[in-house]
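Running this now, will post back.
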Amino acid sequence: MAFCLGLFSGLKAQTVIGAKPISMGQTGVSLPGSEWSVFNNSALLSTEGKTVSFYGFRYVGISEITDMAAAATVQTNFGTIGAGLHRYGFNLFNENRFLLAYKNNQDRFHYGVTLSYTHVFQGENYGSAGTFGLDLGLAAEITESLWMGARATNVNQPTYGDTDEDLPREFAAGFSYKPGSSAQITAELVKDIKFPLSFRTGIEFEVLPSFFTRAGITTKPSTYSFGFGYGSERWGINFALQQHNPLGMSPALDLSLRI
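Update: finished.
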């Protein structure tokens, strides 16, 4: 299969999905019950009923460089099933991912696995290619206030078609801690095989009932972010702004429904 990466091959979609994780320094590997765990750590898929969620992230205000995603979870007699759809790019270059995840637990130990199919398309007759990836997730509830989580992405080392262009592979591990009923702290170490080790941390405060403010930072690359959100028993909405040095400011928004 003829396939050329072209001009936009250096543009990479966010590996962390969801406005709340983005606003907390892209820390999603240890957030229990997150609607976006199908992307961030399948071991932490929500176990409370059915959920449907939608997400958008616009890189530095450029419409051609946009992340869009949707996720859903459902409970079964043998565990939690999650599904996700993620699109990045525009008509001349786009990357599309389709995910199917499974999660279960033994007491306070949680585990998950995600099968994904990634398809990359380039215009101007450069061609397209796709491949399957396998992600693994682990999590442990140390106490009611402290969770540990880890994920390994594309552990099968997939490559596009008959090229040597491989999907991003990274390992992330971290914790989330609730020092009180109205606060949460997260911290992670993330290592992509092609990039330096990144430290990420975030904090969340419930300033009013069901209304949250958040902030976070990352290294390698250097970013800082903040945001806010509202959540009820049936629905939630979150907004984030991420400042990338030196590229600029990027907004993110998500909406979740609990059925």
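DSSP finds two helices and 14 strands in the chain. More later if anyone needs it.
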